[in-house]
Structures are given as C-alpha cells and as structure tokens.
Write a structure and sequence with these properties.
The chain is α+β, with helices and mostly antiparallel strands and 107 residues long. The chain is built from three helices and five strands; from the N terminus they run E-E-H-H-E-E-E-H. It starts with 7 loop residues before the first strand and ends in a 10-residue tail after the last helix. The longest helix is centred in the C-terminal third of the chain and has 12 residues, at 86-97. It has helices spanning 34-41, 43-46, 86-97, and strands at residues 8-16, 21-29, 56-59, 62-64, 75-79.
Length: 107
C-alpha cells in the first residue's frame, strides 16, 4: 500500500459480475465524490459495460448519489441493473419446481 499523504483518504471502488469481481483500493483527496472516485479508479476502462448515464451506486450496501462525499475507507459499489423483477423470478422458480410453470401467450 502507498504511503498516505496529508489531506488524502483511502477508498475502494468495487464492481462485480457473476464470476468476476474488481476491487480497487487507492488514495483520493478529501472532498472527492463517489463519481470522481470511479473516474479516478480506472474501473471504467476495465469494465466498459458500465454506463455512467444509468449508474447506481452504494457504499457498503446503502444506495448513495454520485455526488456523495467520501470518507476514509468507504467502498463505492457499482450496482448492475436487475435482469428480472425479483418477485416474478421467485414466482417462476416456485412454479417450475412444482411443475406448474405457466407461460404468457402473446397476442
């Protein structure tokens, strides 16, 4: 780990796919926002599928805005969009398990 300079804090930026996780730990100046940390981390170059236009962020599991000021040891988490409605997905799993999967017919 790099030596800590005055007026800097250590933060992490995290992004996870089903089989790959990225966690980048680095120093930023105090007053850095969550979005600025993401831009400085280089994670956008590593994961080009991340869209800043639709990005959802959190810090330790709590949703935050992109302009949230970071504190020492904050972990900025980049959330992926849900692929399916959780309630609907659960209903389909239960129905499939019970052999009662009904499909919607399109008109």
């Amino acid at each position: 780990m790099q030596p800590v300079e005055p007026d800097t804090i250590t933060v992490e930026v995290a992004y996870a796919l089903p089989h790959v996780q990225s966690l980048i730990t680095f120093q930023v100046v105090q007053g850095t926002t969550a979005l600025q940390a993401i831009l400085q981390s280089g994670i956008l170059e590593k994961h080009q599928e991340i869209s800043l236009a639709t990005i959802t962020l959190g810090i330790f599991g709590t949703k935050v805005s992109a302009n949230r000021l970071l504190q020492a040891m904050d972990r900025v988490e980049i959330y992926r969009p849900l692929r399916a409605n959780p309630k609907e997905a659960r209903r389909q799993r239960i129905a499939a398990k019970n052999g009662k999967l009904k499909t919607k017919q399109l008109k």
